């Protein structure tokens, strides 16, 4: 019974992560499209995209320093 409960929790966590990822990506694509369509002459990354990039960089740095992505 405990394995079934743990499996259900794992499935819910994976689904929640997927929903968050899809939501962040669609928001970044919408903001990026709006930023490119302004026509002001200056292309600046939207704040949503900057937050996603910063989080990815932090995860990458943490993974390398702990050995998750370095083979240690």
Architecture overview:
- Helix 1 (2-36) crosses helix 2.
- The protein has helices at 2-36, 47-66.
- The radius of gyration is 18 Å and the shape is flat.
- The protein has one domain.
- It is mostly helical and 72 residues long.
- Helix content is 76%, strand content 0%.
- It is built from two helices and no strands.
Radius of gyration from CA coordinates: 18 Å
Ranges where pLDDT stays below 50 over 5 or more residues in a row are none
What's the structural domain tally? 1
Strand content: under 5%
Overall residue-averaged pLDDT value: 78
- N- and C-termini, Cα separation: 36 Å
For this entry, give a set of tags:
72 residues; mainly alpha; 2 helices
In short:
The chain is an all-alpha fold and 72 residues long. It has two helices and no strands. α1 packs across α2.
List the SSEs and their pairings.
Blueprint: H1 2-36, H2 47-66
Helix pairs in contact: 1-2
């Amino acid at each position: 019974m405990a394995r079934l409960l743990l499996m259900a929790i794992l499935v819910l966590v994976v689904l929640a992560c997927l929903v968050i990822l899809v939501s962040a990506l669609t928001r970044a694509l919408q903001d990026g499209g709006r930023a490119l369509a302004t026509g002001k002459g200056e292309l600046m990354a939207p704040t949503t995209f900057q937050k996603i990039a910063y989080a990815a960089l932090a995860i990458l740095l943490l993974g390398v320093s702990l050995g998750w992505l370095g083979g240690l």
